[in-house]
Amino acid sequence: MAMKLRVGQPQDRPRWQKILRTIGLVLVSVLLILAADAAVRVHRAADGIPVLNYHQINNQDVNSLTVRTDQFEAQMKYLADNGYHAITPEDLVDAWENGTELPDKPVIITFDDGYIDNYKNAYPILQKYNLKATIFLISDFIGTYPNYMTWDEALEMQQSGLIDFEGHTLSHPELSKLSDEDLKHQLEDSKAAIEYRLQKKVSFLAYPCGDYTQRVQNAAKDAGYRAAFTVHLGYAEKDAPRYKLDRVPIFGDNTHTFERFKYRMKFAPAWVPYDDLKKTVTQSDYSFFARFIVSP
Ligand SMILES: [Zn+2]
User: Fold this and answer.
1) Would you tell me how many other CB atoms lie within 10 Å of the CB of residue 195?
2) What's the gap in Å between 15 CA and the centre of ligand 1?
3) If you measure from the C-alpha of residue 5 to the centroid of ligand 1, how many angstroms do you get, rounded to a whole number?
4) Per the domain annotation, does 1 fall within a domain?
5) How far is CA 219 from CA 70, 212, 270, in A?
6) How many CB atoms lie within 10 A of CB 83?
7) CA of 114 to the centre of ligand 1 (A)
8) Which residues contact 34 (CB under 8 A, 6 or more apart)?
9) Which H or E run contains 227?
10) Residue 192 belongs to a domain with what CATH number?
11) Would you say residue 260 lies in a domain?
């Protein structure tokens, strides 16, 4: 018996080696195809602009919308040290529509909602690195709730020339669920409120919760916005529908380390399919498997 086994082993080994080699070749081929696909997507999006999307910047809240202040500073320092130029949505759409020139390595820094910590924590850092940013305001919440900035704080930031304010509706509803009348009210009256309070033209919209349909996009256009932003991962691209511009969400699970930020910002187009798949699986009955889908 022992003799037979010993004789059998050397004959088995080449068969296993063959199977392992085949598995290895298949894996390497799949990885090469995925890498090539990612490279093509990054190349195609070469003219796209990263529109970073933040919410809260502080060290107290442990929720998926919050980036720690030191992490935010490291991210802004990286932009400043690496020749990025922060522009506004207006600069971008002017360049697309009128051909005005953009600086090298343009990036748009946005914050949704209008939290008080944008004023207390983010604004000093933006001043330190001389970076422009856009804050999309929920106009009814400004000066109403303690965790939101006041109109005076918004005005002070606007007067610095660094901070631009745009629209994020009156009260943050899911726009796709509203009647035509309520939709118009949310879009038009919040725009008018910010224009009255800050004495500036409001031309851009961020959809609350990234919720939009074709009807919502049409309503945004009718309300007088020039363009609107989603929370779907990707670069804002000239060829994209103007009321469906992608951003690079820097939120999700409160672990926005510097490396994650860099991978998302620099290679967003490469991660889009994985991010979409992860979102789909997360919302399905098989959410457990979402943790195995790699997307920074
Ligand atoms: Zn929001």
Assistant:
1) 17
2) 58
3) 68
4) no
5) 39, 10, 31
6) 9
7) 9
8) none
9) strand 227-233
10) 3.20.20.370
11) yes
Model pLDDT, residue 290: 73
Per-residue pLDDT of the chain (296 residues; tens, 9 = 90+): 444 555 555 566 788 888 999 999 999 988 888 888 777 777 777 789 999 999 999 998 888 899 999 999 999 999 999 999 999 999 999 999 999 999 999 999 999 999 999 999 999 999 999 999 999 999 999 999 999 999 999 999 999 999 999 999 999 999 999 999 999 999 999 999 999 999 999 999 999 999 999 999 999 999 999 999 999 999 999 999 999 999 999 976 656 788 889 988 988 888 887 788 787 878 888 777 777 766 77
CA of 127 to the centre of ligand 1 (A): 24
Q: Residue 137 C-alpha to ligand 1 middle, in angstroms?
A: 8
Domain residues for 182? 51-285
Name the domain count of the chain: 1
Q: Rg for the chain (alpha carbons), in Å?
A: 24
Residue listed under structure tokens 């930020």: 261
113: CA distance to ligand 1 center in Å?
5
Q: What is the pLDDT of residue 1?
A: 47
Residue closest to 168 by CA, chosen among 116, 213, 111 = 111
d(CA 227, CA 203): 7
Q: Is residue 296 part of a domain?
A: no
- 224 backbone φψ class: left, alpha, beta (φ>0; ψ -120 to 50): left
Q: Torsions phi, psi of 50, nearest 5?
A: -70, 125
72, 79, 109, 120, 157 from 126: Cα distances, Å: 10, 11, 10, 11, 11
Q: How far is the CA of 16 from the centre of ligand 1 (A)?
A: 55
Q: Minimal CA–CA distance to 232: which of 251, 216, 248?
A: 248
Task: Using the mean position of ligand 1's atoms as its centre, give its distance from the Cα of residue 168 in Å.
Answer: 7
The answer to whether residue 17 sits within a structural domain is no
Distance (angstroms) between ligand 1 centre and the Cα of 208 equals 4
Structure tokens at 32: 């090469």
